[in-house]
Design brief:
This protein is an alpha+beta fold and 269 residues long. It has one domain. Helix content is 30%, strand content 10%. The protein contains nine helices and six strands, in the order αααββαααααββαββ. The chain has a two-stranded antiparallel sheet with strand order 1-2. Strands 3-4 form a two-stranded antiparallel ribbon. A hairpin with a 6-residue loop joins strand 1 and strand 2. The protein is globular.
Length: 269
């Protein structure tokens, strides 16, 4: 898998883009009482004191989940999908991209919204930019043909002829991303260091498949539980629980044990 399962996740996601108050289907199964959660953001709310970008960045920060494999934080993809609804993304773009000059038409803003929320998805990338208050940079990434499947980005050696930032798949450093050419060194360092928070892999565990994932060394695995189940020889066996939004393994209902059909027990003498 060369995209950490991001393409499969985006294609199989059943999240309704028109309703940001619903949980991801797999998470709803875990906690059905949350299915009527309140909207994370109300488009057009004139009572708020901060921008849409800062408000959504705050909600994304509140959604951080601790990985039990590395003790680092990640944002579950179901939270990114829920918080970055079509309405919320559109509102940010109106404020940060269009601005007071109204240079962008409604049709252009709608296309930009679909470029972020559609397939291929750029929701993870946009979530990361929001947290750094760089929402207006998303247009450059779109123009460069970059989407979530290119995360996490990699940095080529400084002595390379094409030194710079590259998509993860560009292991020969032939496709330098122009998006970062005008960034200062501090912002580039922040982007590369914190991008893994939104880049936890999605594991395709559908029956009949056996996939090999080549994970970057800084990958934050979406494991909500992890403990040693056995050890011996030169390895340990771990029992882990993957966040329900980061896999598609079918979880059938728990089967009840058959009723006890023994009607009479003869006591031992």
């Amino acid at each position: 898998m060369n995209d950490l399962g991001f393409k499969r996740q985006a294609e199989s996601s059943n999240t309704n883009n028109q309703r940001s108050n619903s949980l991801h289907p797999r998470e709803a199964l875990q906690d059905p009482n949350k299915s009527n959660a309140s909207l994370p953001y109300s488009p057009g709310d004139k009572t708020r004191e901060i921008s849409a970008q800062k408000w959504l960045a705050k909600r994304l920060g509140e959604s951080l989940c601790k990985s039990k494999s590395s003790d680092k934080d990640f944002i579950p993809i179901c939270e990114i999908e829920r918080i970055l609804s079509l309405e919320a993304v559109r509102e940010v773009l109106k404020e940060e991209v269009r601005g007071p000059s109204c240079a962008e038409s409604d049709a252009e803003l709608e296309k930009l919204t679909q470029d972020i929320c559609g397939v291929p998805s750029r929701r993870r990338l946009f979530a990361h930019l929001l947290r750094g208050e760089k929402a207006d940079y998303i247009r450059c990434f779109i123009e460069c043909g970059v989407d979530d499947t290119d995360l996490p980005f990699i940095q080529s050696p400084s002595n390379s002829e094409l030194a710079g930032i590259h998509p993860r798949s560009d292991t020969t450093f032939q496709k330098r991303l122009k998006c970062f050419e005008k960034w200062n060194a501090r912002d580039v360092e922040w982007f590369l260091d914190r991008q893994h928070v939104v880049a936890s892999p999605f594991f395709d565990l559908a029956p009949g498949k056996l996939l090999l994932y080549s994970l970057p060394k800084d990958t934050i695995l979406p494991f909500t539980e992890a403990k040693v189940a056995g050890e011996g020889g030169y390895a340990n066996v771990w029992k882990i629980l993957i966040h329900p939004a980061h896999h598609n393994f079918p979880c059938p209902a728990v089967r009840q044990p058959p009723p006890n059909k023994i009607s009479h027990v003869t006591p031992l003498t």
